[in-house]
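Quick log. Single chain, no ligands specified.
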Amino acid sequence: MGFVCFTAPMEKTQNNNLRGIVLLVIATVVFAAQDASTKGLTELLPVGQIVFVRFAAFTLMALFIVRMRMPIRQAFKSKVPGKQIARCLMMCAEISLFTFALRYIGVAETHAIFSCFPLFIVALSVPILGESVGWRRWSAVGIGFIGTLIILRPGTGVFDPAALLIILCAVIYALYNLVTRLVSRHDRFETSLLYFGFVGLAASTIPALLTWQTPSAKAAWLLALVCLCSMVSHFLLIKSLELAEANVLQPFNYLILVWAMLMGWAFYGEILDFYAVAGAILVVASGLYVGFREARASKVVAKNSGE
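-> predicted structure:
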């Protein structure tokens, strides 16, 4: 899955915003292709091995990007190494759980459920960041969670307990985003990028070694495709964040759900039923409204601080 939260400094303009949006839309397509490929790969290789190889590929990409911007040794200097390591371990756990869940749940349904993560960000921003959340955003969070329950339908014959893993992934991903906000106040983007790669690689090494299997030709090709998609999608995501404001890009993140539905149908014959689609619409609409309110609140804060 995708949309790792980084911060990258650069002045934004209208033209840059448009270019950033285009890059992000392409990134969502590649992220969906990555998850569709990962689902097939989970039938052939252990999750630990898949996660390790993904982090190895990401680390190579991170080294390449950082080396073009500044010395590697300098980029490794963090003012908050504990928080850096914690956020990276969160993401390693989230990717592992998400990959494991894909073995049992469809690509489209997985993304429909995972779309609730912005709602967890709002809920957790109060105790973690001390932010104030108004009744409108709380209402949106409540509606979004109702949408999630409609997708899950607990207590019915169609409920899959493995779907709870995706809810857990959404919570972890929300925590990761919040800690990343804290870290970005102290460390450079390049530092966060390197920590993400190396900490994830270190954390996934032992599970990979304990479960390692020699991949078949099909598994090797799929693994190469997943790694390629991972590197390309994250590179596009990073470039889009450099060109455009995060609040401008946020609504387009939800396009991954559209691509996931199309790829799930094309490769695995997945079709979301009426309730899953209705719930997903509620979740996405709530997330978009939350993003709109947060963007508006940020502008008010920036205007007041300027005065």
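The chain is about 80% helix and 0% strand.
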